[in-house]
Amino acid sequence: MPYVVEPEMLRQLAKEKGYLIMAHNYQIPELQRIADFVGDSLQLARQAMETNAERILFLGVDFMAETVKALNPEKKVVVPVLCATCPMANSLTEEEIAKAKEKYDAPFVVYVNSTARTKFLADYLCTSANAVDVVRNVPSDTVLFGPDKNLASYVAEKTGKRVIPIPGELGYCHVHNFVTTAQVRKLLEKYPDAEVMVHPEVPEQVRKIAHFVGSTAQMEKYPMASSAKTFIVVTEVGMAEKLRALYPDRTFLTIDSMVCYNMKKNNLRNTYRALLSDGPEVVLDERLGEKIRKLVEDMLKLTASTHVGKK
Ligand code: 13P
Ligand code: SF4
Questions:
Q1: Does domain 7-82+263-286 have CATH number 3.40.50.620?
Q2: Which GO terms fall under biological process for this protein (predicted)?
């Protein structure tokens, strides 16, 4: 194992060993650059359904890698570390779901940022890109929705349906939930012409002062439709790195507290080691994998066209 790993060494090794490299938009720029495909959760799931590669190296967090594995049960899916997880996904327990199901006679729509066991108990699946479309198309005026309470609130606002968040107050992403309007307004004072783009995982009061609400992939498209020169990117800081590379003539400002340390656990060195040793490998119970596959297929059928998160 070399001490210093250059991005080119990674590309070379991946090619030699037949790996497709998939990465989420929050990965460090060096990893985004060596990936064959970079996207949001929905794009990554779609890409995972289409690939012919026998081996996949996934750069993101565990629930995303599990989705890729569920869609590719016969393939080897490798990650740099198994401990890159999503605390929000782990916040919804089977007991909470059972309690909610007992109390309300309503279908359960699970956000893809959830564990495989949680998904096993769900009726519908959504990502941040299509949550509004999914809930709109669910044949019920009331839905249980979890684990993100902020996404639940956004979906309720857009669909007019009764969206019951589970586990409620404790279901949030620690990276997005604690951003404040004061942090955004401070940047707006300095850059009054800037447009504010937010991820739907931010709290309602921050969402209300945004020009645009959308998933990371939808944020990627937004500057094309806007004449603004400066954007305040209210999501994990890795997204702004991607936007800067895509739009070199625009300015993208970040909220510096918004770092997902789990996404940042992957680096050039542990990625190289994973390729070298073909592991650690993502292992998924077959029954759970089957359920996730069905949820993804149903989700894509339910949403003929992806919701564009415009306010
Ligand atoms: P996207 O699917 O919008 O990329 O979001 C994933 C995520 O983890 C947001 O925190
Ligand atoms: Fe989970 Fe938040 Fe990190 Fe996204 S940013 S992976 S929701 S902890």
A1: no
A2: 'de novo' NAD+ biosynthetic process from L-aspartate
Ligand 2 centre and the CA of 173: distance in Å? Answer: 6
User: Tens of pLDDT along 258-290?
Assistant: 999 999 999 999 999 999 999 999 999 999 999
Q: Are 164 and 114 in contact (CB under 8 A)?
A: no
Give the pLDDT confidence of 287-305 residue by residue, as tens digits.
Answer: 999 999 999 999 999 997 5
Task: State if pTM tops 0.85.
Answer: yes
Relative orientation angle of helices 41-50 and 286-302, to the nearest 10 degrees: 110
Residue nearest to atom 8 of ligand 2 (CA): 86
Cα–Cα distance for residue pair 308/279, rounded to 1 Å: 37
- C-alpha 195/C-alpha 212 separation (Å) is 8
- Pocket lined around ligand 1, Cβ cut-off 6 Å: 25, 40-41, 113, 127-128, 173, 199, 201, 215-216
CATH topology of domain 88-173: Rossmann fold (3.40.50)
The 3-state secondary structure of 73-142, one letter per residue = CCCEEECCCCCCCCCCHHHCCHHHHHHHHHHCCCCEEEECCCCHHHHHCCCEEECCCCHHHHHHHCCCCE
